[in-house]
Amino acid sequence: AQSVTQPDIHITVSEGASLELRCNYSYGATPYLFWYVQSPGQGLQLLLKYFSGDTLVQGIKGFEAEFKRSQSSFNLRKPSVHWSDAAEYFCAVGADNNNDMRFGAGTRLTVKP
Amino acid sequence: DTEVTQTPKHLVMGMTNKKSLKCEQHMGHRAMYWYKQKAKKPPELMFVYSYEKLSINESVPSRFSPECPNSSLLNLHLHALQPEDSALYLCASSQWTGNQPQHFGDGTRLSIL
Fold this sequence. Notes:
The structure holds 2 protein chains of 2 kinds. Chain A has no helices and 12 strands. Chain A is mostly beta strands. Chain A starts with a strand and ends with a strand. The mean pLDDT of chain A is 93. Helix content of chain B is 0%, strand content 57%. Chain B contains no helices and 11 strands. In chain B, the strands form 2 sheets. In chain B, strands 2, 4, 5, 6, 9, 10 and 11 form a 7-stranded mixed β-sheet that branches. A 4-stranded antiparallel β-sheet of chain B has the order 1-3-8-7, with no helix packed on it. In chain B, a hairpin with an 8-residue loop joins strand 9 (87-94) and strand 10. The interface between A and B is medium-sized, with 25 and 28 residues.
């Protein structure tokens, strides 16, 4: 079965600074990769997804992610963080041959003024 | 605004009560999911319905009973819950299962007294 590791439990960045959140996956075939964001008291919102094709994926709210097969990674980036980006971020991996999506443990983002 | 609607938003119940959580989507999705999320943890998959048939039950205790009356509705019937069942219960839907991105509701915050 597929699995996901998010090495950073908590990251703090200053507003306006760049951001990179790490995600490593484990899966034998081509994975289907997702980044979700969860604000306090709310459900998860899809930021972006990778299925195939261009390895640099653009998402909503100015986020992008790059799929690197050689590193089994799918890191999320944003060039300039806004205070409203403070939230919990989950990387997830899905597969063709099963019906469930596996989430990483999440990275909590704090944005300093 | 979320496209997956969950009711109620909050629920407090005793261990002997019977209650139901409801989830509705009108996106024409044919897969629906229940997740349980404890504080500061990722969502844990409980059940998956595909074309109104239960396709995954992740060894969930029988005090949780899912029901999918039609392709737009998903219920979770609760009976004789334990305090450790207190959590955020998230519903999600996708076009079909496997590699499709899931759309989440804002959840029901459940507290067991």
